[in-house]
Design goal:
single chain, 200 residues, alpha/beta, 11 helices, 56% helix, globular
Length: 200
């Protein structure tokens, strides 16, 4: 598991690295508080998990996050937030952030979330996410098979794994996903998985 931390406080970086290396022996983790060094680290590991101090993004009005996602689409972005702000959290979710970790989270929680993200899952603190009624209604309007496909997608399974689990072809899985994306008005797997976690 390759993790890059980008945080204003180097003491937070050093403390987190030390504790996470104890909790996840196989982790390869480094950190920086300098933007130039971040770009170099991302270029060297374009498929890693990157943990970003949310204050960098707030100050930048999302431009930095958008550039990161544009240049490194295979990255999994985890945002570390000090404040609970539903509107801000919603905005991050719409920009394909994979997980949100409260800044005061225990190292064990951070470790568990990083492991989940490394398996392709989406992780958001339940009490930080606004729970509108629309997702539940739209989820109930799906066919049973579509709900099964969506559930497996949200668990981080690939099309091939979903096809094996449900005993259907990968082409059928793809067709179900395309129909799901249209029905739920989402653009990609991350947004569909997030939709499921919010509605389930």
């Amino acid at each position: 598991m390759r993790v890059i931390m980008f945080d204003r406080q180097s003491i937070f970086i050093h403390g987190a690295i030390s504790r996470l290396q104890e909790l996840i022996p196989e982790i390869n983790i480094s950190g920086t508080s300098q933007t130039d060094e971040l770009w170099a680290l991302l270029s060297a590991s374009p498929t890693s998990i990157v943990m970003i101090d949310g204050r960098f993004i707030q100050d930048d009005g999302m431009a930095m996050l958008e550039e990161i996602m544009l240049r490194f689409p295979a990255l999994r972005v985890v945002m570390v937030l000090a404040k609970h702000d539903v509107r801000w959290v919603e905005q991050l979710m719409q920009n394909n952030v994979t997980a949100i970790i409260p800044r005061n989270a225990h190292p064990e929680m951070i470790s568990a979330m990083l492991k989940s993200v490394s398996k392709g899952m989406v992780c958001f603190p339940c009490d930080w996410v606004k729970q509108p009624s629309r997702p539940q209604q739209e989820l109930s309007s799906l066919s049973e098979r579509q709900r099964e496909v969506l559930k497996l997608l949200a668990a981080g399974e690939s099309n091939k794994e979903i096809s094996r689990t449900l005993n259907i072809s990968t082409g059928t899985v793809k067709a179900h996903l395309e129909a799901l994306f249209r029905r739920l008005d989402v653009k990609n797997r991350t947004q569909a998985a997030l939709f499921y976690t919010r509605a389930a």
